[in-house]
Automatic annotation (TrEMBL):
Top-level division of the source organism's lineage: Bacteria
PANTHER family associated with the record: PROTOPORPHYRINOGEN IX DEHYDROGENASE [MENAQUINONE] (PTHR38030), PROTOPORPHYRINOGEN IX DEHYDROGENASE [QUINONE] (PTHR38030:SF2)
InterPro entries: Flavodoxin_dom, Flavoprotein-like_sf, Protoporphyrinogen_IX_DH
Name under which the protein is recorded: Flavodoxin domain-containing protein
Organism of origin: Paralabilibaculum antarcticum
Coiled-coil ranges per UniProt: none
Pfam family of the protein (one): Flavodoxin_5
Flavodoxin domain mapped to chain residues: 4-143
Length: 158
């Protein structure tokens, strides 16, 4: 079984989660940052995990385009979908539902909302203002949901 893990990350959180998932899933998963590395031929893979993060209500455009462009092929594979975000509960679920195509969510073997981080050292000045003034968070926070990652891996590997 050959696996591919495709992700995009703005401040590094989704990258950390993707690396942890690759460690847990095993070496047969190829890890690809869609922002920096060209994609391999998707036909070669049996399982494809896709991950991105929410910034101002939406997942990265490249992840959206990847899902849309390859939807027919993705629907023939074993799929895992995960999302980094700071919202929790229903608002997080709503974000997840708009991040990925409905048919892909229904088809997925595993889905997860894996929490997120506010990393001030990685933010530009506009992001710092948004997070300080609008969100009301003044210091870096790390709220990666490791249980959600473990559940995701369990679903993906059974
Ligand atoms: C400017 C900014 C806007 C954000 N907007 C949202 C949002 O709309 N909803 C949400 O749940 N999280 C939001 N977040 C939190 C991110 O999803 C979180 O920082 C995540 O860990 C980023 O992952 P990444 O570093 O892989 O991009 C925002 C973070 C920043 C810095």
């Amino acid at each position: 079984m050959k696996g591919l893990l495709v992700y995009q990350s703005k401040h590094g959180t989704t990258e950390k989660v993707a690396q942890r998932m690759q460690n847990l899933l095993g070496e047969e998963y190829l890890l690809i940052n869609i922002n920096t590395t060209s994609l391999p031929n998707l036909e070669e893979f049996d399982r494809i995990v896709i991950g991105g993060s929410i910034h101002a209500g939406a997942i990265q455009k490249k992840i959206q385009a990847f899902c849309k462009l390859n939807l027919d092929l993705l629907l023939q594979k074993e799929i895992g979908l995960f999302l980094s975000c700071m919202y929790k509960g229903d608002p997080a679920l709503k974000q997840f539902e708009t991040a990925y195509p409905e048919s892909l969510i229904k088809h997925a073997k595993a889905t997860a909302i894996t929490g997120g981080e506010f990393l001030f050292s990685e933010m530009n000045w506009i992001e710092k203002i948004i997070v300080r003034k609008i969100v009301g968070v003044k210091e870096s926070q790390s709220e990666i949901n490791f249980n959600a990652i473990d559940d995701f891996i369990a679903h993906m590997t059974t």
